[in-house]
């Protein structure tokens, strides 16, 4: 698929930005086919790369995607941790809309846990 080709290109050229975008695309493709575990592993690789790049906006987006996947996989404690990390970053960035989303996601997970 196109994202595997893009990933190979990014690896070959040692371009971590391209690699991160490719992993994000692969994660979306996996989600669309219902392969949530593989989507989560793609996002995990993407997260490592955006952290190395220091891209906090992308890091926040990836964390919330991972948190949502963990919720869908009934991995609630992981979801809480990821959404909590997302909240910390968006607070630092001063992104009030994303902060609201993070609190909403945390509330959904807490409800699933019966809190």
Q: Identify the overall geometry.
A: flat
- Overall average residue pLDDT: 95
What's the β-strand tally?
0
Number of helices: 6
User: What order do the SSEs take from the amino end to the carboxyl end, as H and E?
Assistant: HHHHHH
Taken as a percent bin, the fraction of beta residues is under 5%
Radius of gyration: 15 Å
Question: Which secondary-structure class do the elements indicate?
Answer: mainly alpha
Largest sheet: none
Unreliable runs: none
Residues in helix, %:
over 70%
Q: For the record, give the distance between the C-alpha atoms at the N and C termini, rounded to a whole number.
A: 42 Å
Compact overview of the structure:
This protein has 115 residues and is mainly alpha-helical.
Topology:
Elements (H helix, E strand, L loop, with lengths): L1 H11 L3 H17 L3 H18 L2 H17 L3 H18 L2 H17 L3
Helix pairs in contact: 1-2, 2-3, 3-4, 4-5, 5-6
Walk me through what this model shows:
The model has no long low-confidence stretch (mean pLDDT 95). 85% of the residues lie in helices and 0% in strands. The N and C termini lie far apart (42 Å). Helix 1 (2-12) packs antiparallel against helix 2, helix 2 packs antiparallel against helix 3 (36-53) and helix 5 (76-93) packs antiparallel against helix 6. The protein is mainly alpha-helical and 115 residues long. It has helices at 2-12, 16-32, 36-53, 56-72, 76-93, 96-112.
